[in-house]
Amino acid sequence: MNKKHILITNDDGYEAAGLMALINVLKDDYQLTIVAPSSEKSACAHSLTLTKPLRFISVEDDFYKLDDGTPTDCIYLALYSLFEVNKPDLVISGINRGANLGEDITYSGTAAGAMEGVIHGIPSIAISQLLSSGEQKEVAYDLAASTIKKLTDKIFDKSFPLAEREFINVNVPNISADKCKGIKITHAGFREYGNDAHLHRNPRGEEYYWLGLHPLAWKKREGAVGVSDFQALEDGYISMTPVKLDLTSYERIKTLEAWNDEA
Length: 263
Known about the structure:
Blueprint: E1 5-9, H1 17-26, E2 31-37, E3 56-60, E4 63-66, H2 71-81, E5 90-97, H3 109-119, E6 124-129, H4 142-157, E7 166-172, E8 183-185, E9 190-191, E10 197-201, E11 207-211, E12 218-219, H5 229-234, E13 238-244, H6 253-261
Parallel strand pairs: 1-2, 1-5, 2-4, 5-6, 6-7, 8-13
Antiparallel strand pairs: 3-4, 7-13, 9-12, 10-11
Helix pairs in contact: 1-4, 2-3
């Protein structure tokens, strides 16, 4: 019996520990093809590289880094150069170093890898690991790895539960497996943003800025049903959010029509 084929990418780069954890937990049971950016592409969103050529560089068998490519580039080019005949059965993007909650989904290169997968008709999952406040060094991906293994097995044992152009966005709390309360199905929370741009000057006196990371501040989304992804992680659950690519605000179409018709 042929193994199911999974196409994997990430936005932390081809050497990232989260990517290695994902590969290691899946490699015995599934056929894997990995195409990842050659360098970190965090917060690159759903961007394609249109201003310069891209090049696959072989890392090892069925593992490539895409020279200065984005996660979207990786999935786009892999599907139409490495999968010319049979498409993969699943796309997984991650395991990301840091959560992708609420409106951060729109910034996320990790989420974008899954977006590109479902655009091309491939069931897709993005998975991210929450960091503790101030955590910059070692991250334990054990819970995230076991979670994505269980979800992958369930998808192939049962079915992918979402419709066309919808993907699953998974966020894992930074706790041990024995403290995790399970999986909670959530909506994307209301992320609160500030300005964390840091002004510096080089030795010549020229100004430049570093953009910092905002704390994970959030509030309840008005009118939302159920629990947000932020709340789930705060309560010790893994968050699993169905995300669709159709961004139309259907409930506002009539409002906009009326506004447009005003004299």
